[in-house]
């Protein structure tokens, strides 16, 4: 059914324009019957179509930060007490079910010129266009990239091992986000795991049987950094503004370097990305004149990933140290640390530790468990302060997080029944978030910081700490084709 559907669609597109078509790609006149046969053979040899219909049913016990019809889940919202303090208005149950994540894709392979191999992937779904309350699911781009590769490359005279090098050019998973936990939920472990697909040029070099060296440059499109939105002064601040302009005017792509090792079911990977952005293009100098400024902040996001795969058993774990990792849906950001007479500002990133581990056992009946923990580590320097507090206007944070979040954890068991192409899964998601108040007091040289009771180091929420919890029960129905 899958092949008939896709062949029918492609034939309707290709046949009117195909005066010529042959299995070897050479141009020649063919009767209509042979044209159709040649196109079918071309599709069979080089194109693999795939996709699924997926429907989610989700029940929550608390108002939460979530997107895409509330199916992409982040964390529970902080308390919102009414006037007399008797009720938490965010302690509210809710329910929804949607099938807007239905997906279609095609992998292209088998094309070769000399020793150079070519391939591609195009993947789309109906993810966009729906808010938490209304909308119509729209077709949007997930991945679209080409690959160029070379196999059997010599690694020197004294070894029989060979190398292979592949280039990926286009939109694909960010390498920090690519390894994901065992879950069936839409967010695939976010915000404990990074989540981003982004334009990139990535090289993977397999060096013998065990090692892969990866390096590349990445840009931003759907998942972007946040910032002040090119305000001239802090008084112009109107809220955090996610935008690709910060990397656009930086003129420097995000850079990635990583190495992987495989051996007998084990996989280990270490890597890091470096991002340098310009939060503002213009400012106001001490004379009140608008001028071009040299604002810039550079951050590093390293990670470690481990995996073991057996016959019916697999375990994974990852830890990420993030600096301003909001462009990967990590709980982080940055703030202003200094303002100068020439109009430029200086910045420091917030830091966070995000760790998760997951395990999966079984095939037909599959049992999975994921656990995650996030810790806010504060900024690398003190932010601009006013009256003993960090100025809200000087603090730019993840668009899906909160500036007063101290820590967070999640436990997520899943049971799935796989019957051929049909999967039915039940998942329980318990997420807890610890909120508080952030207070910073200015202090001078020689003062004992420990004596300042109101001092909270560099953006950390340390006062009036309290936990809030959400219990999500979610069922997924998926048919893969």
Could you characterize the architecture of this molecule?
The protein has 481 residues and is mainly β. It has a single domain, classed as Porin, CATH 2.40.160. Helices cover 7% and strands 52% of the residues. It is built from three helices and 25 strands. It has a 16-stranded antiparallel beta barrel. Helix 1 crosses helix 2. The radius of gyration is 26 Å and the shape is globular. The termini are close together.
Topology, element by element:
Layout: H1 2-17, H2 32-46, E1 47-60, E2 64-67, E3 72-76, E4 94-98, E5 103-113, E6 116-130, E7 135-154, E8 162-173, E9 197-207, E10 211-218, H3 245-248, E11 254-263, E12 266-277, E13 282-284, E14 290-292, E15 297-309, E16 313-323, E17 333-339, E18 345-361, E19 365-379, E20 385-386, E21 389-390, E22 395-397, E23 405-419, E24 422-437, E25 463-480
Antiparallel strand pairs: 1-4, 1-5, 1-25, 2-3, 5-6, 6-7, 7-8, 8-9, 9-10, 10-11, 11-12, 12-15, 13-14, 15-16, 16-18, 17-18, 17-22, 18-19, 19-23, 20-21, 23-24, 24-25
Helix pairs in contact: 1-2
Summary tags:
52% strand, two-stranded antiparallel ribbon, 16-stranded antiparallel beta barrel, Porin, 481 residues, mainly beta, 7% helix, disordered N terminus, 3 helices
Uncertain residue ranges: 1-27, 440-455
Largest sheet entry: 16 strands, antiparallel, barrel
If strands are numbered along the chain, what order do they take across the biggest sheet?
1-5-6-7-8-9-10-11-12-15-16-18-19-23-24-25
Q: In the CATH hierarchy, what is the class?
A: Mainly Beta
The tally of helices reads 3
Structural domain tally: 1
Residue-averaged pLDDT: 87
Shape: globular
Write down the oligomeric state. single chain
Classify the beta-strand content into a percent band: over 45%
Q: N-to-C SSE series?
A: HHEEEEEEEEEEHEEEEEEEEEEEEEEE
Named CATH architecture: Beta Barrel
Protein structure class: mainly beta
The end-to-end distance, rounded to whole angstroms, is: 8 Å
State the CATH topology: Porin
Helix content percent band: under 10%
